[in-house]
Amino acid sequence: MIETLPLEIELTSQSRIDGVDFENLGFGRVFSDHMLVAEYKNGEWVSAKVMPYGNLYMSPAMSVLHYGQSIFEGLKAQYMKDGRISVFRPWENHKRMLASAERMCMPAVPEDLFIGGIKQLIEIDKKWIPKQKGASLYIRPFMFASEEFLGVRPSQEYKFIIFTCPVGNYYSEPVRLKIETHYSRVAQGGIGCAKTAGNYAASLYGAVKVQKMGYHQALWTNSLTHEYIEEVGTMNIMFRIGNRVLTPELGDTILKGVTRDSVLTLAREWGYEVEERKVSVKEIAEALQNGMLDEAFGLGTAAVVAHVKVMHYDGKDYELPPLEKRTLANKIYDYLIQLRNGDIEDTHNWLLIL
Ligand SMILES: *Cc1c(COP(=O)(O)O)cnc(C)c1O
């Protein structure tokens, strides 16, 4: 299956699946029986192995622990109504991993290792894919610097790993966001466009402050002037004002979300006027004040769509319209859930079907 290097397979002698309560999976706490581990050394991928999920050996001097070269991806697989398995746009996740690797001075992960590895793992652990409606198998590919060396330079050794987690029907409750105008998650010229661990570390302090104030998450703004909206940090953000759909344009401070891209395609097809450009805090605040903002929602693989219920700006909370009026976000949610379930035709070739 993997052409670039042989894939060794060691199956577990004792599946853990019988101990799993599939009715109470939550998110990211239950791990399937197997994982794929590949190693990069001396300028090439030297081994790839599917093995029982478990702890890794590591040196305390391992480069990632000190200097943070670490990137990841997240995507989902699920059973379709006809019993086949669909994976949503894995090629986009592979492309983004290549872009993140490039930005973080890490090696490229070959497509057949990434996609072929996912296929192989799903084949071996398909009994871990939950069957309840809306549940799925979350797939986490990631790569980190594994060289035992304390010098500051790109590591010369890496590990690429994929493991999977059965996850429940993750419905995000409508979120309360604070438009953050003091702390920053990323900076212009920095690594906000890479799906890298450090961006999450950088966001925690501001996010915890926001949570203490009674909001779920920060809506980050540009670090230099805090005049322009960027994203939520786990999700991209989108707004609807009448027939117009607004979302901040990509750049080096915004992650290129696969959900965001899918929704922009759909919104255009559905006849909305889509504006991908700089979106100022001022215009969103004005739309909020005038009651013109019909919808705001976050977009990401975990929740698909998260309605924004309240937005806080400059000392004031603004309530958004009730959920039943969220025509776009509701349509997106239904479309993507039905597509992955095989209820509607995959006209965009977004599904990898196994
Ligand atoms: C992963 C991620 C998203 C959402 O991307 P999807 O591909 O839609 O899951 C948005 N922002 C950040 C910072 C992310 O890491």
Automatic annotation (TrEMBL):
Q: Which GO terms describe its molecular function?
A: branched-chain-amino-acid transaminase activity
Q: What is its EC number?
A: 2.6.1.42
Q: Which GO terms describe its biological process?
A: isoleucine biosynthetic process; L-leucine biosynthetic process; L-valine biosynthetic process
Task: According to the UniProt record, list the residues that bear N6-(pyridoxal phosphate)lysine.
Answer: 195
Keywords for this protein: Amino-acid biosynthesis, Aminotransferase, Branched-chain amino acid biosynthesis, Pyridoxal phosphate, Transferase
What Pfam families does the database record attribute to this sequence?
Answer: Aminotran_4
Q: Which reaction does it catalyse?
A: L-valine + 2-oxoglutarate = 3-methyl-2-oxobutanoate + L-glutamate; L-isoleucine + 2-oxoglutarate = (S)-3-methyl-2-oxopentanoate + L-glutamate; L-leucine + 2-oxoglutarate = 4-methyl-2-oxopentanoate + L-glutamate
Which pathway is it part of? Amino-acid biosynthesis; L-leucine biosynthesis; L-leucine from 3-methyl-2-oxobutanoate: step 4/4; Amino-acid biosynthesis; L-isoleucine biosynthesis; L-isoleucine from 2-oxobutanoate: step 4/4; Amino-acid biosynthesis; L-valine biosynthesis; L-valine from pyruvate: step 4/4
Co-factor(s):
pyridoxal 5'-phosphate
The entry assigns this protein to a family as follows: Belongs to the class-IV pyridoxal-phosphate-dependent aminotransferase family.
User: Any idea what job this protein has?
Assistant: Acts on leucine, isoleucine and valine.
Stored NCBIfam families: ilvE_II, PRK13357.1
Name under which the protein is recorded? branched-chain-amino-acid transaminase
Identify the species of origin. Raineya orbicola
